[in-house]
Amino acid sequence: MDTMRDRLAPVLSRLLDEDPRVAVVLAEIGKDGFTEALRRHPDRVINVGIREQLLVGAGAGLALTGMRPVLHTFASFLVERPFEQVKLDLGHQGVGAVLVSAAASYDWPAGGYTHMAPGDVALLDTLDGWTVHVPGHPDEAGTLLRHAVAAGDDKVYVRLSLQSNAQGRPVDGGRFLPVREGRSGVVVAVGPLLDTVLTATEGLDVTVLYATTVRPFDAAALRRATAEAGADVVLVEPYLAGTSTAAANDALADVPHRVLGLGVGRAELRRYGQAAEHTAAHGLDARTLRERISGFLGGGTTA
Question: Hey, which bits of 250-303 come out as E strands?
Answer without folding.
Answer: 258-264
